[in-house]
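input
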Amino acid sequence: MSVESVTAVEEGVFFPLPRPLRGEPGGRVGVMAVYTDVSADDLNEFLASYDIGGLRSYKGIAEGVENSNFLVHTTAGSFILTLYEKRVAAGDLPFFLNLMEHLASRGLTCPQPVKNRQGGMLGTIAGRPAAIVTFLDGMWIRRPTSGHCAAVGEALARLHLAGADFPMKRPKFAVGR
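output
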């Protein structure tokens, strides 16, 4: 593979900040990306339908803008719990979770949905659709270089190739939906 430089092109797509970051009604002011709190009792009840051990600890993850995410430590290891908030269509979730499995089966390193004892990948906690995925150790890069950008481009190309034969489809996304 090779990396090509392209000239800057102005695009007409606008991505507004989420309501919590704009301080609008209905959003929380601040950067904490946990919009739905989860009690330890509710989490213990939710985890009881999985074979991933007992709850040791959990904490909200500040990064992100769409969903509530928690780092969950159990006696079997570390996992990510995602509560899908109102902006995410529940009908789209099987597509994304199955895509993660498909990409991993094609050799991409990506989190894997953890199936519950009934074989499902989705559950409900705190009134929200929720999924548990495996935890990948690592950290975001604070000062990316052109080498990092090239690596992201290569990873994106591998993702597209690995997903080319993914059989599920979802409706095209309309900007501003």
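quick obs: The CA atoms of residues 142 and 148 lie 11 Å apart.
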